[in-house]
Design brief:
Layout: E1 3-6, H1 13-29, E2 35-39, E3 44-47, E4 64-66, E5 73-76, E6 80-86, H2 89-92, H3 96-112, E7 119-121, E8 124-130, E9 144-155, E10 158-166, E11 186-187, H4 199-213
Parallel strand pairs: 1-2, 3-4, 9-11
Antiparallel strand pairs: 2-6, 3-5, 6-10, 7-8, 8-9, 9-10
Helix pairs in contact: 3-4
Amino acid sequence: MPDWIVEPGLTDYETAVRRMEARVAAISAGTADELIWLVEHPPLYTAGTSARDEDLTDPGRFPVHAAGRGGQYTYHGPGQRVVYVMLDLNRRGRDVRQFVAALESWVIDALAEFNLKGVIRPGRVGVWIERPDLPPLPDGSMREDKIAAIGVKLRKWVSFHGISINVEPDLSHYAGIVPCGIAGHGVTSLVDLGLPVTLPDLDVALRKRFSDSFPG
C-alpha cells in the first residue's frame, strides 16, 4: 500500500502542486514511497491541457490555475474530496488507459459503499450518475450528472494530480465553467443525492476499496 495522508483544512492549490512535484521526483528517484494524498481546496477553477477559453464563462468568479494535467476546466472547493494519486507506473504497468480505467473503477467501488451506482461513458472521462428523477435532455436521452472528475499527469511514469469527488460542495460554483467541456448534463454530489456522507466517510471507503483496483 502507498502512504496515505489526509491533509487538514484547506490547502492552497499552488502549494499542493509544488508538494506533488517534489514527491513525484522523490518517488522517481527511489527515495520516497508512493502516496495517496487527500486534500480540500478553497474555491478555484483549474484548466487542463485541453481547456477551451469559451468554457470559462465567469473568469472573475474564482482564481483560475493552469493545472498541467489532462482534461479541460474543473472546479475544486470545500466539500469536495481531491485525491492526488502519486503511483509508480514503472512497476504497475506503463499503460495510461489502464491506469485511468483503474481510477474510474476505484471511484465506482467507493461509491458502491454508499449504495450508489456510478457509471462511465465513452467520450466522457469521469464518473456519472444516472438521473431518471430529473427531466430528460432535449433529445429525449436521460440526464446524467457528474460526481467525480479525473485528470492525471505522468512524469517519468510516476502519476500525479488525480481525482475529485463531490461530497457536499456548493454546486452553484460550477456555473462559472462548462465542466470538462460537456454541456447539457449537470453535476451532483453525494449529499445532493440525499446521502448523509461526510469527507471522512468517503476517505474510509476509498482506502477500503483501493487494492481492488490497484493490487500489489
